[in-house]
């Protein structure tokens, strides 16, 4: 495995709006995420956590500065390169975003098929395996409506990890969960990340997660104001 960090951001600035409404949201961000690390990104509402996550996740264009993701520069990258890079990422959001009309298994299969060209039987096997890893082997044919909040979020974790992503970006994945389910989801992400060498960046307001992070970054008003933990 390469020693290069999974994410290497330098001098990143970002603005929203145009003309008089133009407002700077990110200021001179420097950030490195070593491969296999588990980093928590904290900060008050409006501090820029989601903006930073979506820039790193190729969901927004980098306007100024450098952001290298898996050894590829995002600033100036074309749509096709960004789309290929996105296929190497796993996303988990606060709202699990499961398709309500699809079973747990079918939802996870969609996570395999983002990269395209995967035979259906292989996708089905991979999805069943991922659901087993998150402890839901006995729920694969359940619709989301018949799963608890914690179980739905575990399906979302399985869907994010089934394609073996190099980097997992999670935005408030435990916000809607009770204490035990939140701990389960984070432990699961950490355990699976460690087993596969996946790098994880997790945005949260949830103090319960902090003791599980290798590193904690704090954003305030679009600036990183503290970094704690190992580098
Ligand atoms: N699409 C947008 N257009 C204009 N301004 C935006 C847009 N998205 C975010 N912003 C502004 O950028 C700043 C950072 O927002 P962001 O959503 O990244 O913060 P956050 O830390 O994720 O907040 P929260 O914890 O509430 O989700 C805020 O001032 C926000 O109003």
From TrEMBL:
This is ABC transporter. It holds the Pfam family ABC_tran. The lineage of its organism: Bacteria, Pseudomonadati, Pseudomonadota, Alphaproteobacteria, Rhodobacterales. Residues 9-231 form the ABC transporter domain. SMART domains: AAA. Keywords: ATP-binding, Nucleotide-binding, Transport. It comes from Marivita lacus. It comes from the Bacteria. InterPro entries: AAA+_ATPase, ABC_heterocyst_DevA, ABC_transporter-like_ATP-bd, ABC_transporter-like_CS, ABC_transpr_LolD-like, MacB-like_ATP-bd, P-loop_NTPase.
